[in-house]
Amino acid sequence: MSAQIAADESVGDWLEALRGYSSPLPEDADRSLAGTARERDVYQLGLIAREVGTLGEEGADLPEGVAAVLDKATARLPSDRYSDAQAFADAFGSALSPAEVDFDQSRLDTHEVAYIPFVRWPADQNTLTQSDRRTAYVSRDGGMDLMVKVWPAIRRGQSPAIDLAMLAMFEGVARLRAAPVDCLPQFEAAGLSPVGPFLVCRHAEGMPLSGAVVAEPIEVAEVVGLIAGAVDTLHGLDCAHGDLSPANVLLAPAPPAGVRLIDLFDLSPAGSGAVRNLAYAPEDWERLTAAQIDRYAAVRIARDLIAAVGVEHFPALDNAIRDDLARPAVETLEPLLAASRHDLDRLRAPPIPRFAVTARGLPDAELLSDSGLLHVQIRRFRDDRVEYRIAGIEQVLLLRMQGNLIERCVVEPLPFDALRSGKRGTPLAFAVRTANGNRDEVGGFVAFLEETFPDVPPAETRSHTRRSDGFAVADLWHTLIDLEEDFIPSVTLGDRIADTADAAIFEYEADRPFDFDSESDVEVRTRDGGRGRLIGKLDLRDLSDRSLAIRLMSRPPAQGEVVSLVDRRARASIDRRRRGVDRILSGKSEIPDLIDYFEPRRDKRTTAFDLAPGDKEVEAYGLNPGQREAFRAILAAGPVGLLQGPPGTGKTRFIGALVHWLVTEAGARKILVASQSHEAVNGAAEELIKLFGARGDRIALLRVGAKGLTSRLRPYHSTTLRERYQRRFEGGLKARLAAAGGAAGVARPLLNDLVDLDRSLGLLARRLHTLAATLADANTTPDEARRVRDRSRALARTFAQAAPTWLGREVDMEAEQPLVLVEEAHQQLLVRHPRSSPADLAMARRLLALSREWGETLGSGHRNFEEFLAKTRTVIAGTCVGLGQTRIRLEAGSFDWVIVDEAARCTAGELAVPLQLGRRVLLVGDHLQLPPMIEKPMVKAAEEALPRVPQREIIRSDFERAFTSSYGKASGQVLSEQYRMVEPICELVSGTFYAPHGISLTTSRKRARDLRFDHPLPEILARPITWIDTRRSRHSAESGRSQKWKWNEAEAEATLRLLTLIAAQQAFAADLARDEEQTIGIICMYKKQKQEIERRFAQSPFDAAFRRTVKIDTVDSYQGKENAIVIVSLVRANDGFDAGHVRSPNRCNVALSRARERLYILGHGAMWSDRRCRSPMRTIYERIGGMDHAQAKIVGMEMIR
Questions:
Q1: I need a surface site. Which of 465, 600, 662, 1001 has the fewest CB within 10 A?
Q2: Which residues belong to any copy of the DNA2/NAM7 helicase-like C-terminal domain (predicted)?
Q3: Average per-residue pLDDT in the chain?
């Protein structure tokens, strides 16, 4: 490349030295072809673009128009090329952004039918209505009345706009048929017949809103909410009405209240093919989308309804409607929905009870409620004393009674730790006013409390036995989401491994998953959460699963320090999870009774769905028989699918196949793929990319979240997509402006010159103006001011050099203002283009300003663009935590399918964010592996709030609750053919952890054999399973007094000996090092043991290649991962045979099932073989001792040599 930088200094010609490996140019061989540096750049750029466009294949075709642009860029004569890279970029953008819409007619082919709708559905002549564009009538078919609409005047090919309108109708009908809902028409057919496009739907009974009388305030609030909900549902299906009015809203003929939107699709042979009722469209409707027009119409209809009855009945709706109609566009109906619910609740609610409590010393004030609710706690004592605690949001009324006498009555401040609703007591709608007086008046109030809470037992006699009989899962979800507010993500910092220009990079460990949106502002604070001392800011660009970067540090944190990661928008994330839980529990999720599928006591039945893939379609995915059976079963029955996937059974492949089939065969338009971990999300997303690519299909994928991105997924991240849109928009700017300006009668040459003027002078003038404002700011530091002045001088010189081209004169940058000079240049454009008028110039400038605003939006990461991406992508993928923290308002839409991998590891709040959105849901997990990560303080707090719920139910996964319910037993599917573990390891894992639950894992015959293990190896490395007994070591006992802080020196030593032995097999170790993935995994049951092994490993003389093959981590961080060789350090070895958390079958299952070829278990034989040791590892020890010694054996650690 020959790029040049304007500078005052003289420089030599470094071209030859800097060109490196660039391709030779024609002028290199023929010096007579002397060209400019910019023309040489254009030639090289043209070669690169051709190489990228053809993927290096000779003779490969390029898109139409692009080949001609590249031919010009790589012309032999420099003068025949584009003058510079900007001119090349403009031409390239124009080729990729044609002014005319290019419609693919093959998309309409699939909707063509040979039959004539008038013949197939004969008309009842009494119902026939005709116009110059449409025929409509009712037909009776099999006892069912059908509404048939045909547009005889419309044919394909009349215009691209009409073809697009027909396609939108056909695809919209297909989506509504796949997901029928009561508030929308029930479609039976749609297609392109020989007599024109048509559709058929069931005839709906009811009265159009335009002819109905809605006179009762309650009925009005109900109808407004139903209309807004129906419009939201329609938009959630990626459809829009476009012609919404009272005539197209049908009221149910009898209670309960209900509405149905009708006449969803209509066509016109004129213009864009759409039909519009302008009475319910905003004035600038041409600039709005169909969905925005629908929302405006819903708000207008609501305004008319409340005005007819009297706005004084609807204070919340009146305010919401005023606000919505004042906005440039109605982007959401949530304010209208919330207001209708608020007014409806107020209209329906009986007057709340009000009480006066008078006693000596009480303040004269009303106890402030929490949105109308006070929280009640009652304690009864054996001596007949009763204590009543009534908590508001700031104070608590404490009333203690001895019979009819007041023992104590005071108002106290509410303690900070009692702010959680679970600690405040049971919420109840009533009001209390206290007053100071010598005569006590509490009788009526006490009688009300006793009548409301008659069954509270005495505190001293309450049973401490916790039973799960009859507890409601909904109560548990409510309590856990309340408690989540108190728990901010925290990490333990490890070594400081590197420094960048403005940040320090640390290793870290986290006890629970976390993620942040790419635009989050995250503070690193001391452990006291949001109130802790500020350490610095988290740099999200350098955030991975193992390391993080802290910039702007006020002090360097110590190794081992626990710090809190406080997202300044964390409140929004918690609110989003809470709204998800509330939406599900209130029956307003896409599956209204979703919570019932997690209630073991509910007898739910499956619903049949007409989704039946053909045998060849399923077999094409290479699924095994068990996967194929599960594939068909999950599609056919729902709405909640449950799939248990034990280790290595191909869950990722299954999810990829299901999503591909749903998109390409079933017509799914919106699918959400979520998981508890980044590894699972990335694995599923990469499988989709691979599968779609292998079949030549295009995937519209969006990866949400800033953490854990792989290089393969980065092109699908919102930031990358935004940058790609921005570059493409800028490259095609002239073509886009020409298309828009042509419609307004503005000449293309004027538009082109205006763009060039803005790029050369306008941009510089705006930057100089911004720098001048910075200099004028009193907060600008002297160092910043010096840098700004230097930058301003450089930009001013560039401006002065470019200005004569546009002004026809030299400029004085000291005396003249850049923005004023740009205005003068704009007027000079009229001199250049005498046929253009000042009005043309004004229109061109408005179009350019609009384009520039759009470009700035793309460059700034504006939330609206993120939501645009989410609405236009077929598949959205992210962690449950990440989906809850993204700025994209996913809850504003809905999805055809929501698939949650590792669902057994998700808390209720994490599950709620994606599950609320799915019309069909698939939960994939394994409740025999790790449970949800619920911190012990949260478990304890939940036990206090829900005394009837045992701890095992609090930490139990909702996936397990659903899978083991009667619904799960009838519809749940299990994958049992595994591809990961060599057969002896599979048999050990299956027999110990799955056989007791009726599951038998088998090793697939298609499991890929690892040829690296064919190397001649010592006996201990040649055997699939080895238990290394550490009992003879002097340091075999565990160390550490704390139950959580345990380590074992003998096992750490045995681990290093094993690694040394592996590294000594040079050919074998070299093969392992060639793998991109880490091939040796060391799984520690305790974090302290991980740190001890890491320390010893760092001090050992292994070469760099071997070090890269080794991964050291705790068992709680290992689900979803796998290695060819796994070394498990059990740690525990004590005289009391206390296994600690190694007694957990879930943890042990995860630890052992990560191994593909070799499994080494390090443990004290006497500890793990004793019957007093309560752990599945005792069963493992016994099984290994009884296996063929060629497959598994117990050896002393002295045998590692």
A1: 465
A2: 956-1164
A3: 85
